[in-house]
Amino acid sequence: MPVLSGYLGSAEQGEHILGIVRQVKAANPQAKYFCDPVMGHPEKGCIVAPGVAEFHVRHGLPASDIIAPNLVELEILCEHAVNNVEEAVLAARELIAQGPQIVLVKHLARAGYSRDRFEMLLVHRR
User: Fold this and answer.
1) Domain range holding 9?
2) Rounded to 5, what percent of the chain is helix, strand, coil?
3) Phi then psi for 35, rounded to 5 degrees?
4) Which domain CATH number covers 63?
5) What CA–CA distance (Å, rounded) separates 87 from 84?
6) Which residues form the Pyridoxamine kinase/Phosphomethylpyrimidine kinase domain (predicted)?
7) Structurally, how many domains does the chain consist of?
8) What percent of the chain lies above the pLDDT cut of 90?
9) pLDDT in tens, 30-89
10) For helices 71-78 and 85-96, what crossing angle results, to 10°?
């Protein structure tokens, strides 16, 4: 049984979700937590309430088995700029070192791919 989370209205909501993740994993150790850390938009920047981005960096990321940030969110999570695909792979590996087994990066247009295509990058634990 997977647990999937997306947009959070508050950091407190994220804490409740992690409580559910712990309960599900206690009942089924094979369960996975898939986190879509909705925080930013390529043209709008950070779009969430105060505290949500910090929650994802400090708590959501380490608790995730699979995390699916877009390029803006990847930069927020790894706390540095990502300018090309090679840097995106390295940043995804930084996230994997913090907990997730898989990082699925969405919307790679700013990393050198075409803006009229929806490019994704999947990086997994070796």
Assistant:
1) 3-124
2) 40, 20, 40
3) -110, 120
4) 3.40.1190.20
5) 5
6) 18-108
7) 1
8) 72
9) 999 999 999 977 666 667 788 999 999 999 999 999 999 999 899 999 999 999 999 999
10) 50
